[in-house]
Amino acid sequence: MLFLGWFHMRSRCDWCGLIYEREPGFFLGSIYVNYALTALLTTVAYIANMATGAVSEKWMLGLLTAFCVLFPAWFFRYARSLWMGFDQYWDPRAEDKD
Fold it and tell me: Nearest CA to 21 among 80, 71, 66?
């Protein structure tokens, strides 16, 4: 289990003892993952709406603003998990023993 609460992450794995944060600022990359997905989904939704005209521009602005606030908060845990997975795949490390 990586998280104790929605935003509170454990410092190490209970099973193998691996320290999750390699160095200060390690999870900065997860912010980029979260932002990239939020921006991509918002852009696709905006373009799709402009092409179809399904929702008025004012409603679309409100919906996308709410999405841009709520989605990153919900996706926070998954972005961190993805970032750790990408890091372990591209730069594997042995178990940390402290």
Answer: 80
CA of residue 84 relative to chain centroid, distance: 11
Give the closest residue to 1 by CA, choosing from 20, 17, 14, 18.
14
Residue type, 72: P
Q: pTM of the predicted model, to two decimals? A: 0.80
- Other beta carbons within 10 angstroms of residue 15's beta carbon come to 7
The owner of tokens 């603003």 is: 65
What are the tokens at 23?
């160095």
| pLDDT score of 51 | 95
Dihedral-angle region of residue 89 (phi above 0 means left; psi in -120 to 50 means alpha; beta otherwise): alpha
Cβ-based neighbour number of residue 87 at 10 Å:
17
If you ran DSSP here, which 8-state letter would residue 4 be given? Answer: S
